[in-house]
Amino acid sequence: MAFPLTEEQRKIVDDRGGELLVSAAAGSGKTRVLVERLLDRVTGEGLDITQFLVITYTKAAAAELRGRIAQELSQRLAQNPNDRHLRRQTTLVYQAQISTIHAFCAALLRESGHLLDLDPDFRLCDEGEGAVTTAQVLQDVLEEQYENLQEGDDFALLVDTLAAGRDDSRLEQIVLDVFGRIQSHPDPAQWLFGQKAVWALEGITDAGQTPWGALLLEDAARQGREAERRLERALDLCAQDELLQMNYAPSIQTSLEAAQAFCEAAEGFHWDQTCACLPVPFPAVGRKRKRSEELSPLEESRAAAVTQQVKNLRDTAKDLLAKAAEHFDGDSAQVLSDLREAAPAVRGLMDLVLRFQEAYQAEKARRGVLDFSDLEHFAVKLLVEPSGEPTALAKMWGARFEEVMVDEYQDTNQVQNAIFTAISRGGRTLFEVGDVKQSIYRFRLADPTIFLDKYRRFVPGDEAKEGEPRKRVLSRNFRSRAQVLEGCNDLFRNIMSTQLGELDYTDDQALVPGAEFPESGDYALELNALDLSYLGDQEGEKEDKNRLEARFVARRIRALLEEPLMVKEGDGVRPLRPSDVMILLRSPGVVLHHYIRALGEEGIPWNAEGGEDFFATTEVNVALSILQIVDNPRQDVPLIAALRSPVFGFDADHLAQLRAGTKGDFYSALVQAAQDGDTASEDFLRELEELRFGAGDRTCRQLIWHIYEKTNILGLFGAMPGGEERQNNLLTLYALAGQMEDGGCRSLFQFLLRLERLRDTGAKLTAAGGGGDGDGVSILSIHKSKGLEKPVVLVCGLSRRLNREDLMRPVLFHPVLGVGPKGLDRARMVEYPTLARRAVSRQLEREMMSEEMRLLYVAMTRAKEKLILPLALTEGARALERLAEDARARLSPVALERQQSVGQWILLHALTRPEGEILRTLAGGGTECSAPLGPKWSIRWIEGQGLEESKSRAGRFVPVSREEDREDLTAALTWTYPYAAAVQAPSKLTATQLKGRVLDQEAAQEAQGAPQTAPEPIRRPDFIARREGLTAAQKGTALHLAMQYLPLEGDHSPEAIAEAVAGMVRDGFLTSLQGEAVKPEVLSAFFTSPLGRELAQAKEVHREFKFSLLTPAGDYLPGLEGEEVLLQGVVDCWFVDERGITVLDFKSDRILPGQEEERAQAYAPQLSAYSRALERITGRPVCRKMLWFFATSTPVELPKTENLKK
User: Fold this and answer.
1) Is 112 helix (H, G, I), strand (E, B) or coil?
2) Which DSSP category does 944 fall into?
3) CA 29 from centroid of its chain's CA atoms
4) H helix runs in 1126-1201, sequence order
5) Which tens digits make up the pLDDT trace of 223-258?
6) Residue 1138 burial (10 A CB sphere; 0-12, 13-18, 19+)
7) Cα–Cα nearest to 666, from 687, 636, 641, 642
8) Cβ distance 282 to 255 under 8 Å?
9) CB neighbours (10 Å) of residue 1158?
10) SS3 of 613-633
């Protein structure tokens, strides 16, 4: 054996006499125990290895497991070379049934499928072929339904309600979604019939009698009880203060009593009684301010803090009860009426799915193919009677196996579980091992409730009787340091529960350190909170957040490499290497480029998983373009793509010349050019003719390889950056052609048509590899990391919002609750959520959160020595303030459900840790945990502004031997291009670039053909602006707009200006928010000043004056004398009096009195540019350059001698 078994491992190996479920924590050696149990029975009981069925969930895992068993057998045979039984097993191991569930089902069907009239020579269709076939069959079924359509039947109602739209795309999406999801049921047709029965609503008088109403009532009771606890805490706090007792206590007592009545009604599953308790009243609080006794300043401060706490508790309870009441917008009569109105459409949907299933099955039978779900369902038909008992065939197969061993049992579905039970003598010879905390494949129809149900029902192994199902736990972890394991334990004890996580994280589930590590550095679990609140006014801060978090991660890795952090290797330690580090992300695709760039800035090698769409890669597109023109060269798009590719090398100018020379398609242009003596066109046409010659006699696979050889496309793309991945993609295309050839697509036309349909259905293949250095930092999705481990792991993207997109589907689906459709008011054509939809949505949301929690567990348990959790907070301390009220020693599941990201769960726990003092200080609250915790965390608050500056690391230098080489090299390296200033100078300059405002940029954008120097900033949406107010820049814009449209004559009192601003809002010149931001007294102060009166009396006034003119570049860009630049801008105001032109610019800068002169100097270049432009445009001199600062109502005149060539 590789290592001695622990006591808990030995008990699992020796346990006999009934079904055994093993809950094995991460890193606990479950695979080792499975191998040892198998070989213990082989050697101890004289059994052959072929008498065991071992099921894993991937081909790679099956191959690895077979290899480990073979290795262990070899080691034992080396110790006992004369053992004939062992020697026999070394041969039988390669015949043993160690496979995936699908491989086992395929073997079963090939042997016994004739009992179901299945051809034993069936072919498995891949996902791509299946997607194309389902789309075709569904279209045929819909056409048949429309041909037989009758007004008022269920299908007609389905089309009019659930599938409302311009075409059938929504209906097709609904049908395929429901069909795909019911494949996890042992009998999909039975499930569909069962749904029709549920929607009949026979004998239902109260909505609480439906499964959907019962779920919503239970959920409302949970939320109500949480609100009740908060109200009780608030009431207790009121007793500590006289004013609170008088003002708040009566209102809170009333709300508490109403909340209790609401919860009691909901817990009794009485829908109408619950509705009658709503809304829960929250009477206005009292306003008494006088105490019977004066308080000291310190006591006043404490009383104010308690008052705020009571307010927060009351507000939170109010929010919870409001959320609980959202689902109760009608009594039973109304909601049941809505359900009965939607029922015909649901029946129509169930019938349509059933018809589609039958048609799809018939089409597969005609083609002689099966898909993966067919393997499982046909196996169930062979092995399970309609009553649920094993068939005679199942008993025969069960007799072949002494034990059925299932790895990763937490990822089983109902179909697979039925198969395992049938072939294991009703479960008596079933050995299951898994960890429900690592069940992260619900999207693949895995059902963790199967594992959970058994775990809750089975008795502990030491207490089980003979033949009784039992459970055992593997909790000792041999992978990670105590700092990692206890950090995980502390967090998940606080956040994982049956209500959220589907399992209570008790001592049975906790990770127990089982490995020894040398203490040679700082291995504390790190929580790095990045304060990015300075990004708050930028509505497009999401990219910045991801970029800055990636930059922090790269710098933290660089610091660990330079320290260096020492990691265990064998019996010693060594410095950390880049390949020892793993970055984990929920979905790397959209943010991967930030991490690649940040690691590049730090000079750290990396490698990333392939995430790009296979069909979107350049090399595959080039190969497909060549295939298309071999099939038909008169296709302009693929022809030009092939010509422009590295294979043929035509540049854009050459293609333009060819196109300009002739009319017709591009192929005709090539022919004409070849006739006119264009050598490149002639060579291309000759090569294309060679490729097309004999193409009809070759299979598609043969033709692709022929093209690869003739064009050297593998060599061309292999020589490019990422060449190995590019070659792998081309070889994958070749392999795909082989698969489709086996499926009947032998000709080029058939192959291209199949690919086109594949892409039309949205099917995607993942490109090979993601690039980078194989010895670098690994960047993976959490799903891809399962089963892996690294010394240092950084779990990133924790502030990403939880994904609720699946809850937006037209029809929701849950395997137990069924479908959740929307209702449709056909009179007004308005959709509304039915009771079923609300219930299904709520359940799916909770299950989604549970899965996200398990994903976090998987990610954190990948670390062997150091775990780092960076968390980007765009709201800074405000994010902590909102969490403070919920931060308690034992976090409430309801409080966790209110959060929007996984990172907030971690912060809630961190606020309760002793090391979280800095977070509690910033949050202004939180309760420190009194329960014993593991090793200290390292909790840091990091200012994000320091991450803005990017670094470029120094390169490596090599010595130069000869002096003459040194001189030549020095001259070459120090040579500078003499016109570098002109190359880098812009052809267009705005006054903004000198020092100005947004409107100058707008003038530049309006100029015809002017390139846009920067994208327009994303504006804050109205709904956010109403909640958080306008930004400082937006308020400045509002002031400028008001100054542009205010009349110059008449009354300029604050009241008159306020009335004028209101008129601008009515007329659409200002938004309501902008109107609110304009302070009339600020504008009145200008118009009543001497400068304002001069403006009002001027004989000529221009406001928001836009200009564009060519001007000497040397005036603004030193070193460009003799060149010209286009200057553009917008002058706030200029007016003419007897002295000449006065240029006036309004500034909304936040300044204090006395700072005007200093700030004005910063705007001198801008005003000088305005003045010079006006002098050239009008031919009149500018006599004054004036600034008006709204913040202090102060004018500043800039000197006339200002140097224009700043």
Assistant:
1) helix
2) G
3) 31
4) 1156-1162, 1164-1178
5) 999 999 999 999 999 998 989 999 999 999 999 999
6) exposed
7) 636
8) yes
9) 10
10) EHHHCHHHHHHHHHHHHHHCC
Sign of CA dihedral 893, 895, 897, 902: negative
Beta carbons within 10 angstroms of residue 311's beta carbon: 14
1000 membership: H or E segment, kind and range: helix 998-1006
For 410, half-sphere exposure in the C-beta direction (CA atoms, 13 angstrom radius) is: 20
Give CA–CA dist 927/941, Å, rounded. 19
Q: How far apart are CA 1150 and CA 1082, in angstroms?
A: 13
Contact 194, 185 (CB under 8 A): no
Q: How far is 800 from 564, CA to CA, in rounded Å?
A: 31
Q: Per residue in 741-773, pLDDT tens?
A: 776 777 888 788 878 877 766 666 655 555 555
Identify which of 903, 905, 912, 902 has the alpha carbon closest to the alpha carbon of residue 937.
912
Q: Alpha-carbon distance 347 to 196, whole Å? A: 6
Task: Return d(Cα 575, Cα 577) in angstroms, integer.
Answer: 6
| Exposed/middle/buried for residue 239 (C-beta within 10 Å: 0-12, 13-18, 19+) | exposed
Closest alpha carbon to 419 in 119, 23, 116, 108:
108
Q: Which tens digit of pLDDT belongs to each residue from 1081-1118?
A: 999 999 999 999 999 989 899 999 988 888 888 777 77
User: What is the Cα–Cα distance from 66 to 100, expressed in whole angstroms?
Assistant: 12
By C-alpha distance, which of 1166, 1107, 1105 is closest to 1131?
Answer: 1105
* 190 Cβ contact list (under 8 Å, min separation 6): none
CB proximity list for 1082: less than 8 A, separation 6 or greater: 1039, 1190, 1193
Burial of 1112 (0-12, 13-18, 19+ CB in 10 A): middle
Query: pLDDT at residue 541 above 70?
Result: no
Instruction: Quickly list H helices, 563-651.
Output: 592-601, 618-631, 636-644
Q: Give the predicted TM-score (pTM) of the model.
A: 0.74
First to last CA, the chain: 80
Q: In whole angstroms, what is the distance from residue 432 CA to residue 441 CA?
A: 18
- CB-based contacts of 875: which residues, under 8 Å, 6+ apart? 533, 536
8 Å CB contact between 133 and 371: no
CB atoms within 10 A of CB 536: 14
Structure tokens at 484: 């990692």
Q: Which residues have CB under 8 Å from 961's CB, separation 6+?
A: none
| pLDDT, mean of residues 509-523 | 88
CB 95 within 8 A of CB 52: no
pLDDT digits (tens, 9 = 90+) for 607-656: 886 555 677 788 999 999 999 999 999 999 999 999 999 999 898 888 88
d(Cα 50, Cα 94) in Å, to the nearest integer?
9
**Which burial class, exposed, middle or buried, applies to 114 when counting CB atoms under 10 A from its CB (0-12, 13-18, 19+)?**
exposed
Q: What are the tokens at 79?
A: 């110790």
pLDDT tens digits along 1053-1085: 999 999 999 999 988 888 888 888 899 999 999
What is the DSSP code string of 388-414? SPBPHHHHHHHHH-SEEEESSGGG--H
The whole-angstrom separation of Cα 781 and Cα 582 is 10
What DSSP string runs through 878-910?
A: HHHHHHHTT--SS--HHHHHT-SBHHHHHHHHH
Q: How far is CA 439 from CA 417, 526, 802, in A?
A: 15, 25, 18
1007, 1019, 1172 from 1001: Cα distances, Å: 10, 15, 18
CB 437 within 8 A of CB 449: no
In this model, does residue 526 exceed pLDDT 90? yes
The answer to whether the beta carbons of residues 481 and 517 sit under 8 Å apart is yes
Cα–Cα distance, 893 to 926 (Å, whole number): 17
